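Blinded run. Sample ID left blank on purpose so nobody reads anything into the name before looking at the predicted structure. Input follows.
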Amino acid sequence: MIADALLRASVLLAATPTPTPSGTPDDDSVTPGVIGFVITFLLAVVVVLLVIDMVRRIRRVRYRAEIAEKLDAEEAERRGDGPEQP
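Blinded prediction complete.
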């Protein structure tokens, strides 16, 4: 009796309805459209500009560090200390 009820319940729970095909979806509901393209394009442009600016700043800092290192070495030579050992 209990086994029969469990079997019937499992059959009812396992049965899934057959999906019915719907029509083609509206283009506005599945694509971002012109607004989505414009926003994505502007976001890409901003990212590229930020990367270019970051590369410039990193180069500037590196060159300033190289110049400061050269000036420190020249100052040490003038004082007669010789080149600094790391």
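Unblinding after everyone has recorded impressions. The CA atoms of residues 39 and 69 lie 45 Å apart.
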